[in-house]
Design a protein that fits this description.
Layout lengths: L3 E10 L17 H14 L3 E5 L8 H4 L4 H10 L3 E2 L10 H10 L3 E2 L4 E3 L9 E6 L2 E9 L3 H4 L8 E3 L2 H14 L4 E7 L11 H6 L6 E5 L16 E3 L7 E10 L2 E10 L10 H18 L2 E5 L7 H4 L5 H14 L3 E5 L10 E4 H7 L5 E8 H11 L11 E4 L1 E5 L9 E6 L2 E2 L5 E7 H4 L13 E7 H12 L11 E3 L2
Parallel strand pairs: 1-2, 2-3, 3-4, 7-9, 9-10, 10-11, 15-22, 19-24
Antiparallel strand pairs: 1-12, 5-8, 6-7, 12-13, 14-16, 15-18, 17-22, 17-23, 19-20, 20-21
Helix pairs in contact: 1-3, 1-8, 3-8, 10-14
Length: 484
């Protein structure tokens, strides 16, 4: 007969992005139902860990207006045990993140975030003892954070290569005779994060049993369990799913059974009344600002991640046109990753506007040579057709490119106001402060002469939507054109 000497259930979330409210239309489980579910599990089984793999402190207005405080307080109420900061958890600046983590009643882990003075701002690892077994846990944050938030937000921080940091943690934990090693990571699995993915962590290390991952918003449908290699789990984004890992040791063998539980299974879940009251109060405090109607659309305006990181949509063309009208710039260049939501037909509210553009990015204009605009377009289109946060969303120009050509040689023709762009000429470019500081790898624009700062993008949109409402069919010309 098999003998189970150890069992633990790990409940995990990732890339919640402030989706704390139950939302049936968008399939967000919400914090109060998650808390009710976890409380039920804890009543049934004392060996429960609740873990978040990053990007929870920023996103919807309920958390952004408090600069993450509401999310941190909710995490305390729900009873999280561990949290690894993701790139967007730095969106208010590293000092604000440190302030928030001081209020957190759980461990914040990251073994590869270090200050310039060599000190680690967070715990690198932790060891817990359950049923006479020791579990070693460490955290890792993507090095992409330095360009996946405003670079100014991490100017005092270095991100160590996660593979090197992991191997150091594995050695240290082994010396302490742990029975299991869990890595909580905000690395992702897609090609956009190539070289620093959780797949790379799995393949280039020995000794990790389980990797709980975030960053790429991936729900891993097929769990690759390779002998002597870590099992990787990730459960999508926005609390549409909750991940569960049932981890046992039977006759010395480690058995890892993961699953993701969908929103539909939480419809009948009784909410935690304490968490429910808190999130509803936090929501009501901002609702009077968010309910203001600023326009109307007769059609669906697409802003979902898979769309805006690979192509133009009617919504992105409207947004870049709004920036062009506001600034009078020759060209507008925004990154697809800065748009985070769609707008459904009907009235357009400030909540819609803030959900589309949740990062509090302000707009700046700079003087730039045509040669650097060309470099920006080559970079933004370099990974096409794979989705990338740096995909160019533009106005004032057309770009014809050949996706079959090699990186850095894809752009064939660029026109500004229907006139071929001259590489030696100077133009006025409008962009957000993220790109302006070199975000998403756009370092070529960082040192260009700044002309003027404008308001945040959501304010620009709130002024533009009334002008163009009601919005009908897309009759705006294409700006990014694949031409072989």
């Amino acid at each position: 007969m098999s003998s189970v000497v150890f069992n633990i259930k790990i409940v995990h979330t990732n890339d919640v992005h402030g989706r704390l409210l139950y939302d049936e239309a968008n399939k967000f489980i919400g914090a109060s139902r998650l808390s009710g579910y976890v409380s039920k599990l804890r009543a049934e089984n004392r060996n429960i860990l609740l873990i978040d793999a990053g990007d929870i402190l920023h996103g919807q207005t309920i958390v952004t207006l408090s600069k993450g405080k509401v999310a941190a307080e909710v995490m305390n109420l729900v009873g999280y045990n561990y949290f690894v900061p993701g790139n967007h958890d730095f969106n208010y600046g590293y000092q604000r993140l440190l302030e928030l983590t001081k209020s957190m009643k759980f461990d914040v882990l990251s073994a590869n975030i270090v200050f310039l003075n060599g000190k680690f701002p967070f715990k690198r690892n932790d060891i817990i003892k359950i049923d006479d077994k020791k579990i070693g846990i460490f955290g890792l944050t993507t090095p992409e954070t330095s360009i996946k938030t405003n670079p100014q937000n991490t100017k005092e921080i270095i991100f160590i290569d996660p593979i090197k940091a992991a191997n150091k943690e594995i050695i240290e934990l082994r010396k302490k005779d742990v029975d299991l090693i869990i890595a909580i990571t905000h690395l992702g699995v897609d090609n956009e994060s190539f070289g620093h993915r959780s797949y790379d962590l799995r393949d280039k290390t020995l000794g990790i049993d389980l990797i709980i991952d975030g960053h790429s918003h991936t729900k891993l449908k097929k769990i690759d369990q390779i002998i002597n290699r870590a099992t990787i789990v990730s459960t999508g984004a926005y609390l549409e799913y909750v991940g569960i890992v049932d981890l046992s040791i039977i006759d010395g063998a480690k058995i890892i059974n993961p699953e993701s539980i969908h929103f539909d299974n939480f419809k009948s879940q009784k909410p935690d009344p304490v968490v429910e009251r808190f999130v509803k109060k936090a929501s009501s405090e901002v609702s009077h600002l968010l309910d203001k109607i600023v326009g109307r659309t007769q059609i669906y305006l697409e802003g979902k991640k898979s769309a805006v990181r690979t192509r133009e949509t009617h919504l992105t063309k409207i947004i870049t046109d709004a920036v062009k009208k506001e600034t009078g710039a020759d060209v507008v260049f925004l990154n697809g990753g800065s748009f985070r939501s769609s707008i459904n037909p009907g009235n357009i509210t400030m909540n819609d506007v803030v959900s589309v553009s949740p990062f509090s990015n302000f707009i700046v204009t700079k003087k730039i040579k045509g040669s650097k605009i060309l470099q920006m377009l080559e970079l933004g289109l370099g990974k096409y057709p794979f989705p990338t946060g740096g995909f160019p969303q533009i106005a004032g120009m057309q770009c014809f490119f050949d996706p079959g050509l090699e990186f850095d040689s894809r752009v064939k023709v660029v026109k500004i106001d229907d006139v071929p762009m001259k590489c030696e000429s100077e133009y006025i470019i409008a962009t957000n402060d993220f790109i302006s500081c070199g975000g998403d790898g756009y370092g070529m624009v960082k040192n260009c002469k700044e002309i003027k700062k404008y308001s945040e993008l959501d304010g620009i949109l709130a002024r533009y939507f009334p002008i163009i409402s009601p919005i009908g069919a897309d009759n705006l010309s294409a700006r990014i054109i694949a031409k072989i």
